[in-house]
Amino acid sequence: MISVAVLGNGVVGSGVCELINKNDNNIKLSKILVKNIDKHKNDKNHNIITDKIEDIFGKDIDIVVELIGGIHPAYEYIKKSLNNKKHVITANKDLISKYGEELLEIAYQNNVKLYFEASVGGGIPIIKNLKNYLASNEIKSIKGILNGTTNFILTKMDKEKTSYTNALKTAQELGFAEADPSSDIKGYDSARKLSILSTIAYEKKVNWENFKVEGIDDITETDIKKANELGGVIKLLGISNFEKGKIYASVRPVIVTKDSEFAKINNEYNSIIVEGDSVGRLTFTGKGAGKLPTATAVYSDIVDSIQNKENSFLFNYEKAFIENHSSEQCDWYIKINYKNSHKVLNELTEHFKNIDLEVNKKTNQILVIVKSEHEEYINAVSNKLLQSQDVKSLNSLMILNN
Amino acid sequence: MISVAVLGNGVVGSGVCELINKNDNNIKLSKILVKNIDKHKNDKNHNIITDKIEDIFGKDIDIVVELIGGIHPAYEYIKKSLNNKKHVITANKDLISKYGEELLEIAYQNNVKLYFEASVGGGIPIIKNLKNYLASNEIKSIKGILNGTTNFILTKMDKEKTSYTNALKTAQELGFAEADPSSDIKGYDSARKLSILSTIAYEKKVNWENFKVEGIDDITETDIKKANELGGVIKLLGISNFEKGKIYASVRPVIVTKDSEFAKINNEYNSIIVEGDSVGRLTFTGKGAGKLPTATAVYSDIVDSIQNKENSFLFNYEKAFIENHSSEQCDWYIKINYKNSHKVLNELTEHFKNIDLEVNKKTNQILVIVKSEHEEYINAVSNKLLQSQDVKSLNSLMILNN
């Protein structure tokens, strides 16, 4: 009989307890750590609920499932669990993207496992497929809708033609967005997840702090409408690729056209496209959050920690140098809030040969479509325009066909 | 060092050898079994090529990779390998769908593994995700584009508005279809794959011989055009579901509308949607065939057979009773080649309340759209019409929105 302790009894924690109790096998739920034990007096599991972390580190626990979230005290608890020779399963993306290499090494030294499938993609089995199934492949690129909250908001804005503010409010009311949604909205959550996937895929430590990260809080109804006119929709994408020894990574809103697999990924769904040198393009789609989808991922890690012999997986400590612009050319949509339309138009026609322009004198906006251009050049021109007196603000979105 | 013998040196076999040689680890290619050794005198691997099957069963081989295909002698070779305590990896769907339960039991008795990831979905990791990752879930349904050849032909017919015969010819010229393509075209290949997935998912032996299996050889340009008018495309789908203790399974051409995830799956790509009670809907998409995608799946099985401790996976011998009609209602497209249009029209309006009709007196065809109807009723009316003197032939296609 394998004995499991679950730290945290929130949405995912209670889902994991449910799956352990439902599945008839040799895995036993032995302890549940909570903050306030008085709240749980009437729980079905009350006889195994504790608020003493020491209960977790005893010899009777084989596997620790950390679902507290955040850096502290999760970091300390995981470290101590590993040092006490317990396998650790976590869904903590903040922690793994920050301290993954150190914690994996501690696990390795102690001959136990540290698995974190649920830290990326909720119910989608992306980490084990990247780490194990694709081990024979050189990974060329990863593209993904990695955050359910922002995808829910963007879907709402697109389907109901509602404002960002309204869509965010609905998401919060329905429990799809937290009271402080900034980590999701600003793209940091996606960036942490992309950093975990990229670190596994490219075998160098890919720090998300070095990415270009843009959120969705600047997306307006104008942008949604323009995306629709182009036959597409706006999605927040994490993109990384590996080419000639260089790693490019970014998180940003992108217009995906109707031929893209991402175009139909709506609401809380996540989708990740991995390209390997042998396997080609592989796509994984599923629910990116939620009690039982995430619990499915955690539970599979519990089983794997028992059944897998391998114990050699480590993050590379060597830090990857992150390129700020992709070497690929694509089309671009640029929205400019101007002060002086003539001067801006002059600059645009001077710098770009192949563009479509739409000037709205009521809103003082210019919408530009630039055909097949490099990100580096788009950024350079954008920065130049932003520094001039003639431009109030500027946003640029990639247009992706697949 | 783990020693591998590969039986068969065709497309996938040579891909597996390539991946073993490329990946720097403790897996060594020790023998390659071929039919005619004289053909391989100048091969890079010629010193390990043999035409003597006895070379495979010796103590120096740890893992046997069977890529000969077909039932005999693959069945005998696998049996003997397992009985000689060797792990066996195979891509052989014919064999697994027919003798899977027996071979898995022999593996179990000998405390070795029999893995067959590449038998379904080419480069898509569907079997290990169904078997391991989703072990905690009750699987409710499986829907999939499971055959690359037919998907290539249907894509060609759709994009280029060409006939079935022309599309098949192109597929054969490009190596996407075999000289005798009947197993693909008639849906038997998809049925075997669906039977393997369903046997794992529903934990009963799901024999494909009991499915309703329809191929794509009756699909005409008229059908493609009609599907497009309905905002969809035609795909050959394997569908199974488990509801209230009953298993429904079929392989048939289906009109998938533009909102379906399957609508964008083109050419040699396969896509499989699994619905679990906890995880919800999970979609896996990738190349369903080809040298290195399939070799990726085989290679991952080699690694898993070394790294996994579990050795308890068995097919259930208990045979599933297969329902012939789904309990779900959906829309239907029916094409009737008639002798007497009046009588057929009378029958149709008598049996269906909510239909759209299109009569073509030049081609003697009636195209019918029936709204939200059960398969059982569609089949009953179709059979009645087919038995009358007034109908020459009749085809019915499901219309699926997701």
TrEMBL record, chains A, B:
Pfam families linked: Homoserine_dh (PF00742), NAD_binding_3 (PF03447)
Q: What keywords tag this UniProt record?
A: Amino-acid biosynthesis, Methionine biosynthesis, NADP, Oxidoreductase, Threonine biosynthesis
Reactions accelerated catalytically: L-homoserine + NADP(+) = L-aspartate 4-semialdehyde + NADPH + H(+)
Q: In which pathway does it act?
A: Amino-acid biosynthesis; L-threonine biosynthesis; L-threonine from L-aspartate: step 3/5; Amino-acid biosynthesis; L-methionine biosynthesis via de novo pathway; L-homoserine from L-aspartate: step 3/3
Under the heading SUPFAM superfamilies, the entry gives: Glyceraldehyde-3-phosphate dehydrogenase-like, C-terminal domain, NAD(P)-binding Rossmann-fold domains
A GO molecular function held by the record: homoserine dehydrogenase activity
Broadest EC class? Answer: oxidoreductase
Q: Which residues form the Homoserine dehydrogenase catalytic domain?
A: 125-303
Annotated Aspartate/homoserine dehydrogenase NAD-binding domain ranges read 8-117
> What EC designation does it have?
1.1.1.3
Q: Which family does the UniProt entry place this protein in?
A: Belongs to the homoserine dehydrogenase family.
Protein name (Swiss-Prot/TrEMBL): Homoserine dehydrogenase
Q: Which organism is it from?
A: Tepidibacter hydrothermalis
